[in-house]
Write a structure and sequence with these properties.
Largest sheet: 8 strands, mixed
Strand content: 15-25%
CATH architecture: Alpha-Beta Barrel
Structural class: alpha/beta
Shape: globular
CATH superfamily: Aldolase class I
Mean pLDDT: 94
Number of strands: 10
Radius of gyration: 19 Å
Strand order of the largest sheet: 1-4-5-6-7-8-9-10
Bound molecules: iron/sulfur cluster
Helix content: 25-40%
CATH class: Alpha Beta
């Protein structure tokens, strides 16, 4: 049984649906964002190389021909560079047709690594970093306790790209509520434009029962957006994004309408699609939304 190699619930980006998920860290090195309950039941730690090798030995008989591996849990890039480099060497030696290894990376952990360290990881076969921006607004970032301001978000994302790694930036629609929707949209577009990622993904806020953010509902600090307001916010962000070339996706299970394309080339088509969805008034029902 390979299920017993996993500790607790495991999360991965939607685009890693066909990847082998391997936990190299347990939990999240930050674990304080008010909207997130993904790892609240886990204490952060780096798994030992020996444990990871043991996990891989269990996996190999079932999944020898793996082409993609995603390293979990949250912010696995927080682990020491030398250890991560050894893991990458080990994975490429074991999986002979492995093409890509990707990972979650948070701004606070990337800040501790030099561009040269990131470059070493790239040379060892790390390909893509998923980066949780959540919002470009300093006010929203402070409220959700992300631990990093927009200038850090921009600097750390640029470091990732400078090292030659691919960058996938994720933000959350509705995160500032109706109160901060305008500044959330404007600033998120500004920061994404400065980060210039290869991929950009929009999720929509889902308030989990055990989250910190739920306490803000009804206090006047956070009023949830309705589906039309979410799409209006999405429209402003898409309109404001000015990047070289990013694959833009808003088709996550949490979103009210599946929207996607390439920016800037598809901008008019994406905006027209959003307008059509708003006009139709047909949105994914709440009970079908998921994380
Ligand atoms: S959103 Fe990301 S950084 Fe924040 S607590 Fe959750 S996993 Fe950690």
């Amino acid at each position: 049984m390979i299920a017993d190699i996993y500790e607790g619930a495991v999360f991965r980006p939607p685009s890693e649906a066909y990847s082998l998920i391997l936990q190299t860290t347990i939990g999240c090195s930050w674990n304080r964002c008010t909207f997130c309950v993904a790892f609240t039941d886990k204490e952060y730690r780096v798994k030992s190389l020996r444990d990871i090798q043991r996990d891989v030995d269990k996996i190999i008989p079932y999944y020898k021909d793996v082409q993609r591996i995603f390293l979990a849990d949250g912010n696995a890039l927080a682990m020491p560079t030398a250890e991560l480099a050894s893991i990458l060497d080990f994975l490429y030696s074991k999986f002979h047709i492995l093409e890509r290894v990707s990972i979650y990376g948070g701004p606070l952990d990337i800040r501790k690594k030099s561009v040269d360290e990131l470059r070493i990881l790239k040379e060892k076969g790390l390909e893509l970093v998923y980066f949780g921006l959540e919002s470009g607004s300093d006010e929203v970032l402070r409220k959700i306790r992300k631990g990093a301001k927009s200038d850090v978000m921009i600097d750390t994302a640029r470091k990732v790209r400078e090292a030659g790694l691919k960058l996938s930036v994720i933000f959350i629609l509705g995160l500032g509520g109706t109160e901060l929707s305008d500044v959330h949209a404007r600033e998120t577009a500004r920061v994404i434009s400065a980060q210039d990622p290869d991929y950009t993904a929009a999720l929509t806020l889902m308030v989990e029962p055990n989250s910190e953010i739920i306490k803000e509902l009804g206090s006047g600090n956070l009023t949830l957006l309705n589906p039309s307001e979410v799409l209006k916010e999405l429209r402003s962000i898409v309109e404001g994004i000015d990047v070289t070339n990013t694959v833009f996706r808003a088709n996550h299970a949490s979103n009210y309408a599946p929207i996607g394309g390439v920016l800037p080339s598809d901008k008019e088509r994406i905006l027209a699609h959003i307008d059509k969805a708003m006009k139709s008034g047909r949105f994914k029902p709440e009970f079908l939304r998921a994380l």
